[in-house]
UniProtKB/TrEMBL annotation:
GO terms for molecular function: ATP binding; protein serine/threonine kinase activity. Residues 3-254 form the Protein kinase domain. Gene3D superfamilies: Transferase(Phosphotransferase) domain 1. ATP binds at residue 32. The lineage of its organism: Eukaryota, Viridiplantae, Chlorophyta, core chlorophytes, Chlorophyceae. Keywords: ATP-binding, Kinase, Nucleotide-binding, Serine/threonine-protein kinase, Transferase. PROSITE patterns: PROTEIN_KINASE_ATP (PS00107), PROTEIN_KINASE_DOM (PS50011), PROTEIN_KINASE_ST (PS00108). Belongs to the protein kinase superfamily. NEK Ser/Thr protein kinase family. NIMA subfamily. SMART domains: S_TKc. InterPro entries: Kinase-like_dom_sf, NEK_Ser/Thr_kinase, Prot_kinase_dom, Protein_kinase_ATP_BS, Ser/Thr_kinase_AS. This is Serine/threonine-protein kinase Nek1.
Amino acid sequence: EDYSPIRIIGKGAFGTAHIVQHKATGERFVLKRVRLARQSAKERQYSVRELLLLSNLQHRNVLQFKGCWVEGGCNLCLLVELCESGDLFTQLRLRVRGGGLRLHEAGALLTALAYLHRSNIVHRDLKTANILVTAEGCLKVADFGLSTMLESGRLTRTVVGTPNYMSGEVLQGKPYGTPNDVWGLGCVLFELSALKPAFQAFNMAGLVKKVTSAPAPQLPSCYSEQWRGLVRSMLAKEPETRPSAEQLLELEWLQ
C-alpha cells in the first residue's frame, strides 16, 4: 500500500516486475512479485535464495536490496533499487554503447566480484543481461537466483547458468568454484570490447568444443596488449591458471 505502480517492465509465467513509486517520498524502485504457487520446488528455492543473498549484500556495484514481504499468502514481493538505464545486453543490442575500453567499469565489476567471493558467494550466471546500469552509469551485478554459497575452498558440480558464458569445467560437468565467475566476467569484458560474444555455436556440442578445445578468441589489435592479456587470462581453459578477481585488482594499470 506504500507504493504506486508506474509500469510493468517484466512479465512471465511466475510473476511480474513493476517500476513502483513510494507514495511518501516519490522515490522509485523495482518490485518483483513472484507467484510461489505456480513455481516448482526448485524454482521456489531459487526465489528464496535470491532473497536471502541479496538481503545480506552491501556493495556499490551489487544491486541493492530494499525490502521484502509476502502478499496474500502466495506472492513473494522483492523490492530492489531501480537501474534506469537497463542492462548491458540490451544496450549492446540497441547499440546504445559503442565499442571502447572503460577501465573504471572493468574495475567496478572486478571489485564487485572480489566482494562476492570474499563472502563465499559464487554467482554462477555472470552475463551482460545480468549487469544493470543506473542513470548515472554505475554498473550493478544482479540476478542471484542461481548463485550459491560455498564454504571456503569447496567446489560445486551443479550445472547452471547460460551456456555461452559457461566455463569448460561447468560444460563438462566437473567441479567448479570462483574461477567459473572469473571466466563469466571475462566473457562479459570480451563482449563489451569486441561487440560480439566470446563464444558462439550452432548447437551445444559445437559450443563445448569451442570452449574446451578451440584457441581462445582474440580481441582486436586496437586494444592494448595489457587489456587483451587481461581478458585472455580470464578465459584460460584451466581454472587453476585463471587469476582471481583480487589478483586482477592488484594490476597497477587497472587502478
